[in-house]
Write a structure and sequence with these properties.
Bound molecules: 3,4-dihydroxyphenylalanine
Structural class: alpha+beta
Oligomer: single chain
Number of domains: 2
Helix content: 40-55%
Number of helices: 12
Number of strands: 10
CATH architecture of the largest domain: 2-Layer Sandwich
CATH topology of the largest domain: BirA Bifunctional Protein, domain 2
Order of helices and strands: HHHHHEEHEEHEEHEEEHEHHH
Strand content: 15-25%
């Protein structure tokens, strides 16, 4: 009999049920008048007197454990029951709103992608830089106004450590560790000590390009920039180069593209001129090559730099620069289709 009790106890521990009907069937099997435990009680009458105490205790334990277990199962299927009645488990719990790529990331990726197809590889440099990489190696005179506190953020207690004010510093980073041929495209954030307004910000983004090799000429620069403009703004886009000045290029130019709104006829976007300025460029000044360990009698190069916000403004007509850094979802969601 003791074996039978043990076996039933094991069975009771393993019980499971998926519906109220199954629980009821188990209750009948174990706990009803004709159930397993009642039968044990009947047999109990015939056991010798000296075993009654021990066996009686065990049968009572079995009975209370079986009752407990059946009640647990009842509670379990009751929960299942409510779930099945009231909840559609296949339904999405709440509308999932997908994030969007930031418009500046979209434009940056597009620029990098165009230049990658032309053989440029990605290069990056630090945002916290030293004076050498941002200014001195880029041929800025000691008294150049860009070094001024009005333009440059200094890292406190380190007059030499600054937040880079342009991505041209990455040119120096690349040249100092690599000999030509060099063909890199360098996107990144830059900082300038400007009052924040709709038209200026204390940080923005640029993409720098650099190509250094034997026999690189201005016509290579012009060709690559024309290709870029047509990929970026459409195949009808025209470019024009106006003479300019940068310390790190000689000769230097600024490039305009035909207006992306009126196509060159003149409108409010291009202030009637038909042209929009988008970047600075030029032939790398031999002094810059030499400062960065490249022999300027053997190699020549071109460089260009553009503001990503500027390009994004032309593509999407964003009127206020601050929109790019406020993370207002209503603004960001406008770019879902461009992702
Ligand atoms: N560094 C310039 C700026 O921040 C942009 C620039 C102009 C970069 C001409 C160049 C370049 O590489 O050749 O305004």
């Amino acid at each position: 009999m003791i074996e039978r009790i043990k076996q039933l106890l094991d069975e009771v521990e393993q019980l499971h049920a998926a519906s109220p009907e199954e629980v009821e069937a188990l209750r009948i099997k174990y706990l009803s008048k004709k159930g397993e435990i009642s039968q044990l009680m009947d047999d109990f009458r015939t056991v010798p007197a000296e075993m009654k105490k021990e066996l009686g205790k065990r049968i009572n334990e079995l009975k209370s454990r079986a009752t407990e277990r059946i009640n647990e199962l009842k509670a379990g299927v009751a929960v299942l029951d409510t779930v099945a009645d009231d909840v559609d488990l296949t339904r999405t719990p709440y509308p999932i709103s997908l994030g969007t790529r930031h418009p500046l990331t979209i434009v940056k990726n597009e620029i990098v992608d165009i230049f990658s197809r032309l053989g440029f590889t990605l290069a990056e440099g630090p945002e916290v830089e030293d004076d050498w990489h941002v200014y001195s190696s880029m041929n800025f005179a000691d008294d150049h106004p860009a070094r001024d506190m009005q333009d440059t953020f200094f890292v406190e207690a380190h007059p030499d450590i600054i937040l880079r004010s342009h991505t041209s510093s990455v040119q120096a980073r690349v040249m100092e560790r690599q000999q030509p041929p060099i063909r890199v495209i360098c996107p990144g954030r830059v900082y300038r000590n400007e009052a924040v307004s709709a038209r200026a910000h204390c940080f923005f983004h640029q993409v720098e390009g650099l190509y250094v090799d034997k026999n690189v000429s201005f016509k290579d620069l012009k060709q690559v920039l024309l290709l870029f403009a047509q990929e970026m703004f459409g195949s009808d886009t025209k470019i024009r180069l106006r003479p300019s000045f940068f310390p790190f290029t000689e000769p230097s130019a600024e490039m305009d593209v035909s207006c992306t709104i009126c196509g060159g006829k003149g409108c409010s976007m291009c202030k009637g001129s038909g042209w929009l300025e988008i970047l600075g460029c030029g032939m790398v000044d031999p002094a810059v090559l030499e400062a960065n360990g490249i022999d300027s009698t053997v190699y020549s190069g071109y460089a260009f730099g553009m503001g990503i916000e500027r390009i994004a403004n032309l593509k999407y007509q964003v009127k206020d620069l601050r929109m790019f850094s406020e993370n207002d979802v209503r603004f960001l969601e406008e770019f879902t289709a461009a992702n």
